[in-house]
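Notes from the 1:1 (GR / supervisor)

We went over the backlog. Supervisor wanted to see one worked example end to end before approving the batch request, so GR pasted a single chain during the call. The sequence is below; no edits were made to it. Supervisor asked that the structure be written out right there so they could see what the output format looks like.
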Amino acid sequence: MRRPLVALALLAAAFWSAPCSAQSRSQLGPLCTTETTPADQMVDACSKIIALKVFKGEQLATVYFWRAVGWNKKGDYAKVIADTTEAVRLQPSQAVYNLRGSAYYDRGDDDIAIADFDDALKLGPPSGIIFHNRGNAWRSKGDYAKAIADYDMSIKADPKSAFSYQNRGIAKEALGDLDGALADINQAIRLDPTLPQPLINRTAIWRARGDLDRAIADGSEAIQLAKDKPPVNVMTPPNSVLISAYTHRALAYEAKGDYAHARDDYKATLAIVASDAGSKANQATAKVRLSLVSDAAAPIPRDAPSPTTQPAAAPAPQQTGASPAPSPAPAVRVNRMALIIGNGTYAHVKALPNPPNDARAVAKSLRDIGFTVSEGVDLDRSAMQTMTREFLRDAARAQVALVYYAGHGVQVDGRNYLIPVDVELKPGANMTEAMIDMDTIMAGLDDQVRTNILIFDACRNNPMAEHVAAAGTNRGIESASGLAAPTSRASGVTLGAGTLIAFATAPGQVALDGEGANSPFSAALSRHLGTAGLEVQQMLTRVRAEVVSATKNKQVPWSNSSLLGEVYLAEK
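Structure output shown during the call:
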């Protein structure tokens, strides 16, 4: 899960004793400072107390703190940060620094979050909860060794901390230690068998091992627990656990080829009201995948042959917690799949000579290292949608999914779109309906069990500029050069765990199409993709250096990663 799982032992216990109105003492005070008060009532009560202007110093800091708790329930992290900052000014405390750090973490500002957790620990005494939360931030940064060290400290302080065992297991899984991860997750389940979250994480481990029946069983138990025992921790948004459980079970059903049950779970996910970014991200994934499985022709045969398959991991011994017998024949998983599209022969906007050549070169490089490649050149919107949807559906069985696109791309109102060759903007037409939304592709691939690599050489100019100008300002659309940087978990979609995204140039900048048969970026990429034993981020560093040199510093490729461990596209 993306959100920190924070116990409330650190909440300030300094209730005010200054004189105040009878209303604030008998009604507003308990509403403001009771953990189970609904968010809107908590915020309203605390705001009214602040408006009384009868409290100062530590007592006023306490009220700001509790109002921040209310904002946190609502997922309004900017207001959490504003209120906790005011509380810090009035009276610093471990609880306030911890809550502000958690809000920064939720917003994706991991470095600032870590600084706040550091300040909280300096105030003492040592707190397992703060070590746990700092571990979450280190894990979010991809520093799993530091995350595990902090979870170790949290477990030392509280050996019965189920969430610390769970999150240490997640960090171990990211380092490829599935046995260690499973041991920690099992310990979390032993410590508190009523918690759905560890079962959700064990669902992901079973899927990674290819044991889909166990994954489905754990997902089912997690769903039931989430319904029977909604989270009481005010830092955990309502419905977030249930949404996550449905999403993970749906992914297991889909990987197994049971599209009917997957559809039911995706529909259940979308029917639940979501308030936090992580849940909205799961719902964005569910929306895309529901559309994919709804038009699936038939379940994938359990023994279907594949040109690039690898044996599924052997079922692990039966572990503590409800789980069925090992699957006799886990579904076949395709090892590595790629979707390659190159659009250049545009009918109504500026044509580009190189993207088809670029796509063919990259496709060949990937086939040479064992990828199963779906390749398309000069696709209209219908063909591009069909190929993309088929790839996203098949990627449910893949361990590595790579998407490469060359051609026109544009950002509109901060969202990125890929442009089919038949795009034609007519007066009164909706600009984005003629294009392919990049966020849809990213949401469809968002799954930490799979490694996702998305590479876009799609910022060669802004073909929409003259059309936007002609449409007039009343369209309410802003089209800018280049592509927009993907945002982190706080936006609700885009860059999920296990994903790397690379652009041919920096966000907002225009790349070069090149004077030869290939663009500078794609030429370098196709050369380095097949280098044996080269980790993917090191490979992109070499590509970046080559492009900068070839373009005399005019173009600097850019990438952002939430990969869980090292990834090698070509065997060592």
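Supervisor's comment: The chain has 21 helices and ten strands.
Batch request approved.
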